[in-house]
Design a protein that fits this description.
The complex is a heterotetramer, with two copies of chain A (410 residues) and two copies of chain B (337 residues). Chain A is an alpha/beta fold. Chain A has one domain: Rossmann fold, CATH 3.40.50.970. Chain A is built from twelve helices and seven strands. In chain B, helix 9 crosses helix 10. Classes of the chains: A alpha/beta (410), B alpha/beta (337). The complex binds thiamine diphosphate (2 copies) and magnesium ion (MG) (2 copies).
């Protein structure tokens, strides 16, 4: 029963800088590319406990692929990845502007995080299922999901595949391995595990990949999903997209002052990989490693994708209110599009002319899709039949819905 | 036909479904080797194998989240929450995911899950082994809620719930697991054998969700109840001497509004009986619906007999529990009003 | 007296309490440096210090659990849940811990916490930024639930909630944060300045929990509403031309039953208006209570005008939202019935 | 996009034995006493990451205190601990039997786990607060809580300090640093953190100690509490009572197949100590270390107390239905009462005669308390005024409660 010297005090984490301060990432230790070892994916967890504290990087500052995690991808694959990422960025920029013009109610960009969905969408199979966050339209871009369907969903118009029922960007695309999004963060992390367990239960060969933002790791859902994944050895890859911000809260509010997000794997006896989330090649290699583990009945892997949310949280947000101006530019791991482009150029498989041509092509594709969507109508100008409001509550509407539909005269 | 108590009937429903549909599976706390703290899943793991009926971590949210993912995959999971009181940590999963998945994804994904939970009081379980939370499910668009009152219905409704493509909350009145209980706690315990509803076919049959049962025909007042309260209602009606019509709702969503309205239009009077605390309980919805649809037929105010607006109190179980006496008094009041 | 919108009034209430009571503190997602996504806590961290108003992890369950522990210690924590839709992960904490702590410990511990959450629709927030979950709190014994309809009340009620020794759910109708909204979405936006309730004293005052406001006197029918719907009710009454009495409940628990009953006994008619979906909503409880207490005064059925029994649908916001037209039609029906 | 060889399969953990099998603990690695290092409590977390995988033990098989964690306690303290443990066991046995006689509705014993509450109650100060589980009446025993108050609570009689509102054994005893229990497992773990944060907020010097069963670590509450404890550096000790069973579920269902419960600390950048929970001295030392850390503003510690639930789960349970007979006797870490007794005897500070005398004294104390409680009345024979049912819902009853009380005629 000792007493205190000094008195207790409550610690409230604060970020290294706020508006008006010089942005800095000096508090982070970023190891050089190629320095983290690559154990075999069949290694026991006890032999992997250093990995969560490293940072798997393949692309070095000169755009060369180095070290044991180099996935040695063909130039075609690299170009396909670049295309999906660039398309995502082009689409985001255009749709974000359309929100400013009042054509929809809401939008969220993936700026700076395009590598994640694009790359993992390519690594995983057509029958696998992603349980994405709202910052992963790049998953769909890599699988050539029709742009106009995205636009129609965003406009909640008569052609909206989700029948006007859902907030813009909260897509669902089963055929593309993309589980239904919802506004609640985190609450689908456990469904990814359940889906993977179902595949194992059936003796199928599909695996699942689940995503959660670093801020959202604080939800009980995170822990519950990892517990089930570990106990039942579910064939699932669970990813923490650590973009360092949760709206206005820096990652210290989610625990980043004390350890890494990858280290949370240790609580469940699972491998935890910490990966440069702006490095297409590193993501590829880590995902492949985890997928192989899952497919060979070795269970789940937790992957932290260390990145930076280059834009605002959403159209409702203004990041200049809470973080130093120019922070994105200072982010030491750079921009994922630029880095993959640089790598392709370094390989001699890409050049500025081709890049400009690709950009022009994608800009045109987005323009055309938007035009097509606008022809159907923007939010408030066109919508599905109001009957759709009463459909899909249950498989068959009950008397309440039928009566209420009648009350509305439809 | 064999005689079963409610536990055996539920067990039989699960056994039938595990046998007939390879996409069904059961998990929950202690349901595997042990067969559940109320033994509803007894023997199922042994018979159907480890992966068809297994223990889950103590994490109601995780249990339901996992079931939703399995349901989206194409399975038909049945999960047990050990007590309805402990369903609350899973409430967000039930409301924000299970109930809304079909709607928001335009039917691409849906959650054909069944969430079983022993429910209600009368067993001296104190605050957290006695509650009746049906109202917090009834209000949620996209959820169905079922509450059986006898073994026959329990089995038929459970099979219907499992086969249903929407998420179903299946609340099992634990006080009547082993025998009907009419609220007269000072009398000898009854068993199910020989009671109505205790003859239960071995194989598959369903009792459709959304169809109430007319338990007793009567001319003067309609009593609406579900679960254990169906038995309390019978005792209360007998005690009152009133010629009451008794409706057992069996499911509160979907609700058999037709049967209710037809009865109240005939009798002109209504008493609603439930165990849950009164304020904001499901009785309020029933009262409002009936008043809206039968206003000109009503001869006296619709009454609600329900748990008091207190937490479930251990020592005062029988003071809290809405028993036949309180119902009888309400029936007489209603008739004399 | 200064003019404030509802955000400013709430901010002022928090500022007053942080100033006057060193045991108060605020935490929640994004409430610290940034001041909250609706800016209700703007400037409070700067003025009162880092430990008086700070950001919390995205964990509504953790936020409420932490607040309960602080409350048990002797503090008076005020937490923000970013949207009422996201209160569900904290539901178990609110029901099983906050609401029951005083009762089960015989008063040794209690949870004098205030849980603020922006609430309701009308902002094209889609399924999960628009819901009105008051019914799932009203049913819980031990919780109080407050829903203000104007800046003056918002400040006075919030201070009363913070000073209250019981847990209070404080639901802020976000559609009227910046100005009153009467449901006529095609008209120009209004601001609070110049509107009733926009004059707000700088300092401390309270509006007691459990006292409804008589917003409009009338002879022929009573309209009961709260939050945004108070404004919709005014428009609907005007549109109908009916001489209606309008009651703003301000808190649904405690409920001002006296004011309600007195009014309905006078008018003999009643329409209840709320945003939440109808089935199992709080309107059911109100309807039941009124019917029980005013049966012999009722000239026509009590009506409920409410959200439909669907999830909150993005594109169909104005088809879903119970606007003045639907209220006016109900008023006329009620009068003609 | 590789495909599986072999097919996926769902892993369901199963315990090493079931009824009819020989009990075995061969799968466990139990290191000898005294072998785990004792770093300074001020060490950074990064230097402590081996601790969750060890097992802190002080008492060796001969009852000697060995190694760096030896707290070197006075014989008086040891005897006080023994007394609290023995009183707990005596009380439990007696009250369990009373349930069998129908005198109450429910009972739960702490058999095999008495060291935990007794020891930590002695280490912590009078102003600190425990957020216990239902297996910790030993906390109160160590602080001389009146036995008759326990009995009256268990009987829900007219003298029940909780006024008949709560299930037997779900005590509340603020003056004894014992937070109100509830039937919900886990849901008070976060309150412990909030309480500790409040103390730090006020600049006070009280700390909190929270408990959770190993089975219950799967709840989201566990993760949320640890997250808040870590982020705000709360002065709290969080304990996992790993008694290896959660009703009928072995600890593998909570994740014990893959790692230790102490290792869950790593997810939060907190120190995790794994401690022999049947070793009074080891618990003492670990708790003191964690308390000092908390009091010196270094934040929270997670302690796994490795023990064995020697009895059934509760009066509703029959463990012979799901675990091998005689498992308790085979548990390699023995019985906490016997081990502390053996240590005192080895020190020459105790003997069989004194032990018998103590046992007789405690048996008599329990008998007297039960008699006093029975004189008031057992469940159903005596209860507080029914008015109490309507009190305490709110600070002041509202009209509903007043009306309903009247309706009941009281
Ligand atoms: C359950 C729940 N709580 C709160 C919110 C409000 N909210 C939306 S996004 C967000 C931040 C999420 O941050 P993070 O997990 O880091 O994801 P990011 O936006 O950075 O991708 C919050 C708090 C929500 N949508 N759902
Ligand atoms: C939220 C909740 N879920 C389920 C239960 C039912 N239940 C009571 S005790 C228990 C087992 C707890 O096991 P553990 O955490 O290991 O604690 P122990 O009993 O071993 O001390 C369960 C599942 C409960 N009381 N609360
Ligand atoms: Mg983030
Ligand atoms: Mg245990």
């Amino acid at each position: 029963m000792m007493s205190n010297t000094p008195k207790l005090q409550l610690h409230i984490p604060t970020p290294p800088g706020r508006p008006g301060d010089e942005p800095t990432f000096d508090h982070l230790e970023i190891p050089p590319a190629g320095t983290v070892r690559r154990p075999d994916m069949s290694a026991p967890e006890a032999d992997l406990r250093d990995l969560p504290y490293g940072l798997i990087r393949v692309l070095d500052d000169a755009g060369r692929a180095v070290g044991p995690w180099n996935p040695n991808l063909s130039a075609d694959r690299l170009r396909a990845g670049l295309r999906a990422m660039l398309l995502t960025r082009t689409f985001d920029e255009r749709l974000f502007r359309l929100h400013r013009q009042g054509k929809t109610s809401f939008y969220m960009k993936s700026e700076g995080e395009e590598a994640i969905g694009a790359c993992q969408s390519m690594v995983l199979g057509r029958d696998d299922m992603a349980f994405p966050t709202y910052r992963m339209v790049s998953w769909l871009m890599a699988r050539d999901y029709p742009l106009v369907d995205l636009v129609n969903q965003i406009f909640s118009n008569a052609q909206d595949p989700l029948k006007g029922r859902q907030l813009p960007i909260l897509y669902s695309a089963r055929q593309y391995g993309f589980y239904s999004l919802s506004g609640n963060v985190g609450s689908r992390f456990g469904a990814a595990v359940g889906w993977a367990m179902a595949s194992a239960f059936k003796g199928d060969d599909k695996i699942a990949i689940g995503y959660i933002g670093e801020g959202t790791t604080a939800e009980g859902d995170f822990h519950e999903a990892l517990t089930f994944a570990s106990v039942y050895r579910a064939p699932v890859i669970l990813c923490v997209t650590n973009n360092q911000w949760a709206i206005s809260s820096f990652s210290g509010i989610a625990g980043a002052e004390t350890t890494t997000f990858a280290a949370k794997a240790l609580a469940y006896g699972l491998p935890g990989l910490r990966v440069d989330g702006n490095d297409f090649l590193a993501i590829w290699a880590a995902t492949e490693w985890a997928a192989e583990r899952a497919r060979s009945n070795r269970g789940a892997t937790l992957i932290e994708l260390f990145t930076y949310r280059a834009g605002g949280h959403s159209t409702s947000d203004d990041p200049s209110k809470y973080r130093p101006a120019g922070e994105a530019a200072k982010w030491p791991l750079g921009d994922p599009v630029e880095r993959l482009k640089q790598h392709l150029v370094a390989l001699g498989e890409w050049d500025e002319t081709r890049h400009q041509a690709l950009q022009a092509e994608l800009t045109e594709a987005v323009r055309a899709a938007v035009k097509e969507g606008e022809a159907v109508g923007c939010l408030g100008k066109s919508k599905p039949s109001v009957r759709e409001m009463f459909e899909g509550v249950f498989k068959e509407p009950d008397w309440r819905l039928i009566e209420q539909r009648r009350e509305l005269g439809i | 036909m064999p005689t079963m108590n409610m536990i055996q009937a539920l067990n039989s429903a699960l056994d039938v479904m595990l046998t007939e549909d390879p996409d069904t599976l059961i998990f929950g706390e202690d349901v595997g080797y042990f067969g559940g703290v109320f033994r509803v899943t007894e023997g199922l793991q042994r018979k159907h194998g480890l992966t068809r009926c297994f223990d889950a971590p103590i994490s109601e949210g995780g249990i339901v989240a996992t079931a939703i993912g399995m349901g989206a995959y194409g399975l038909r999971p049945i999960v047990e929450i050990q007590f309805a009181d402990y369903i609350l940590p899973a409430y967000d999963q039930l409301v924000s995911e299970a109930a809304r998945l079909r709607y928001r994804s335009n039917g691409e994904f849906f959650a054909p899950i069944t969430v079983r939970a022993p429910y209600g009081g009368g067993i001296f379980g104190g605050q957290t082994h006695s509650q009746s939370p049906e109202a917090i499910f009834a209000h949620i668009t996209g959820l169905k809620t079922v509450i059986p009152s006898n073994p026959y219905d329990a089995k038929g409704l459970l099979i219907a719930a499992i086969e249903d493509d929407d998420p179903v909350i299946f609340l099992e009145p634990k006080r009547i697991y082993n025998g009907p209980f009419d609220g007269r706690y000072d009398q000898l315990l009854k068993v199910w054998a020989g009671e109505p509803g205790a003859e239960v076919p071995e194989g598959r049959y369903t009792v459709p969700l959304g169809k109430a049962a007319l338990v007793r025909k009567g001319a003067d007042v309609t009593v609406i109840a579900y679960g254990t309260m169906v038995h309390v209602a019978q005792a209360g009606i007998a005690e009152s001497g009133v010629d009451a019509e008794l409706i057992d709702l069996r499911s509160i969503v979907p609700l058999d509004i037709e049967t209710i309205v037809a009865s109240v239009r005939k009798t002109g009077r209504c008493v609603i009986l439930h165990e849950a605390s009164r304020f904001g309980g499901f009785g309020g919805e029933l009262s409002a619906l009936i008043q809206e649809r039968c206003f000109y037929h009503l001869k006296s105010p619709i009454e609600r007999v329900a748990g008091w607006d207190t937490p479930y109190p251990h020592a005062f179980e029988w003071d809290y529990f809405p028993g036949p006496k309180r119902l009888a008094a309400a029936l007489i009041r209603t008739l004399e009003a």
